[in-house]
């Protein structure tokens, strides 16, 4: 049990429901009347009204898949799926396993696979758009849940056991850094040994249709669906965080881009700081000139 964790029989004992429009989970005594994530300015409401699924209903509708992208780094995703559809990552280290982000729903087979890999000792996410089924992981494996205090308001379905401000190293070699920007508590995870930056929604890629690990464009945004750019100060904070991290790969919850690292990311940000911030995709090759 996590240090300082006080179990209670209140909200976390309620059944969990996921929104079909965005994948955000809520605990409620019946299907929720609405979804706060869809009502947030960074998203859109469903055109035909709300639809919520129980865990069993979501498992039946959205098949779960997984693969080992690199030694000791696993990706889990749902296909087909409605809503935002982020991926989950499981990172194995000598000190334990850490989950970062969550797919919309984990199948029982996927949860058994995670158990066979050693379970999950630490769990975190970049921001609420990528929370996915964190509730399943917490209910099944009882990991330490590390989330930025700045996004605590979005964690009502969860039990946060290790809140942090701007930096946390929950396992040796795995660093959480709060970037803010996209959300006030938006954070990235840096794997020092593998030089992978799990960047959340700080960045967005378009991929080569023939190679899902190769990005062709990159962008940064406050709200991707609505095309809202970040502010100059938000970009400066991004730059301060990214400049201190020696990463050669940049993985979002949707695109594990193996061909983009710190050089390209800083070039994107510097270009916007020198002119006007925008949310348009920029060809990755143009940032290497």
Automatic annotation (TrEMBL):
Q: Which domain of life is it from?
A: Bacteria
Matches recorded under InterPro entries: Metallo-B-lactamas, RibonucZ/Hydroxyglut_hydro
In this entry, which stretches build a coiled coil? none
Q: Which Pfam families match?
A: Lactamase_B
Q: Where is the Metallo-beta-lactamase domain?
A: 149-209
Q: What is the name listed in the Swiss-Prot or TrEMBL entry for this protein?
A: Metallo-beta-lactamase domain-containing protein
């Amino acid at each position: 049990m996590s240090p300082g964790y006080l179990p209670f029989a209140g909200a976390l004992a309620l059944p969990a429901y996921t929104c079909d429009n965005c994948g955000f989970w809520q605990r409620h005594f019946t299907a929720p009347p609405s979804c706060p994530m869809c009502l947030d300015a960074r998203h859109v409401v469903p055109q035909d009204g709300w639809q919520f699924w129980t865990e069993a209903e979501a498992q039946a509708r959205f098949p779960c898949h997984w693969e080992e992208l690199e030694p000791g780094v696993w990706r889990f995703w749902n296909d087909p799926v409605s809503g935002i559809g982020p991926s989950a990552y499981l990172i194995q280290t000598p000190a334990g396993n850490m989950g970062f982000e969550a797919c919309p729903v984990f199948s029982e087979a996927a949860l058994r696979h995670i158990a066979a890999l050693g379970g999950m000792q630490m769990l975190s996410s970049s921001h609420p758009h990528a929370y996915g089924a964190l509730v399943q992981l917490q209910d099944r494996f009882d990991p330490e849940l590390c989330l930025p205090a700045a996004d605590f308001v979005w964690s009502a379905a969860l039990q946060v056991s290790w809140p942090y401000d701007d930096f946390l190293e929950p396992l040796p070699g795995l660093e959480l850094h709060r970037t803010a920007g996209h959300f006030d508590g938006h954070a990235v995870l840096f794997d020092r040994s593998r030089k992978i930056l799990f960047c959340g929604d700080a960045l967005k890629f378009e991929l080569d249709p023939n190679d899902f690990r190769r990005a062709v464009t990159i962008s940064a945004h406050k709200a991707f669906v609505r095309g809202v750019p970040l502010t100059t100060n938000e970009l400066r904070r991004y730059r301060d965080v990214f400049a201190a991290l020696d990463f050669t790969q940049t993985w979002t919850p949707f695109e594990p881009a193996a061909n983009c690292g710190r050089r390209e990311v800083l070039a994107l940000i510097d270009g916007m700081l020198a002119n006007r911030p925008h949310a348009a995709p920029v060809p990755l090759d143009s940032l290497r000139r």
